[in-house]
Amino acid sequence: MWVKSIFPALASLAVSMLASLALAGTAQTCAITLTDLRVSPVAYDPFAFATVRATADVTARLDGPDACDPVLSLTQDDLNPIDHLSVGGGPAILFDIRPVGAFAAGQEITLHLTPDHPADTAHWELVLSRDAVLAPGSYTTPLAVSARLDGQATRVISRGAFLLNVSSRAQVNIAGASGHFGQGTLSTLDFGQMSSGEQRRAFVQVRANTAVLAVVSSRNGGVMRNETLPSAEPVAYTASLDGKALNLTQVNLLALDPPPSIDGLSLPLDVTLGAVEGKMAGHYSDIITIDVSPR
Fold first, then answer.
1. Cα 193 to the chain's mean position, in Å?
2. Which of 225, 204, 207, 227 is nearest to 289 (CA)?
3. Of 240, 47, 74, 43, which Cα lies nearest the Cα of 146?
4. pLDDT tens, 87-124?
């Protein structure tokens, strides 16, 4: 009886082991490799207000004999998908992240890899959604692609970086009133029928993402000349910018520090006529030129 009871137990054990081996042999393993994450660099002009786009892509390759459906997403913590990317410090610009392709759902892209189609590429678009006035320089923001595999806790990670290059920019506008940059552009201070001591005011608007050098000059050296007879005695005038007198007999160099904003700063430009009595009748004019550049 003892001998007969052992063999069925051994036979049963052997069958159980074979069944386990056969079951393990049919299990499929999802194995892939990822290329380095490629992100196109962007040259950014804070005052261009243009559509700015970048692209990000990574290629997944099958690394085994079995088909695989990896789910890919852009991330900054190797785990959670992101739908936007912030670039810059205090003032920051924002890029929306948009997966591209038929297999995109939410922020994730699913690829279908088989032995007959062992490689495919996932694409994302980064589209500027919020401008900011960033200081000149290069801004590098780390990014990664996380690939979630069928039934596996571990993820395959590919790393890269988004590079934003910001150039030095400075702009100037002359306006009739203090306000938003570019509104109410003024090309002429019209004194009409001139009288001694008469004054007109304009506003010099300056915006930049860095410190600025302003160059102020007068075509006629601070006098208005008769347009019909330039040799006639001119009408002198004085000018001041932000309350500081300008010597228009020479070139004026002014250091300005506009705040890093879309509107920048607005400086009053006051022009006051000298004596006009006894001057020849006619139209008198001068041209004041204001040029700004980053310094």
1. 49
2. 204
3. 74
4. 997 789 999 999 998 788 899 999 999 999 999 999 99
Closest to 113 in 3D by CA, of 48, 39, 34: 34
Backbone angles phi, psi at 223, to 5 degrees: -135, 155
Do the beta carbons of residue 97 and residue 57 sit within 8 Å? no
Give the sign of the dihedral formed by CA 68, CA 71, CA 74, CA 76: negative
Band of residue 28 on the pLDDT scale cut at 50, 70, 90: low
- With 60 as the cut, is the pLDDT of residue 11 above it? no
Per-residue exposure over 122-153, b if at least 16 CB sit within 10 Å of its own CB, e if not? bebebebeebbbbeeeebeeebbbbbbbeeee
* pTM, full prediction: 0.81
Reading the block at residue 99, the tokens are: 């997966």
224 φ, ψ (degrees, to nearest 5): -100, 130
Please say whether the beta carbons of 72 and 120 come within 8 A: no
Q: Give the count of beta carbons closer than 10 Å to the beta carbon of residue 169.
A: 19
Amino acid 91: pLDDT: 83
Q: Which of 5-9, 54-58, 91-95, 136-140 has the lowest mean pLDDT?
A: 5-9
Cα distance between residue 41 and residue 39, in whole Å: 6
Judged on CB neighbours under 10 Å (0-12, 13-18, 19+), 245 is exposed
Contacts of 28 (CB under 8 A, 6+ apart): 66, 67
Structure tokens at 49: 């207000």
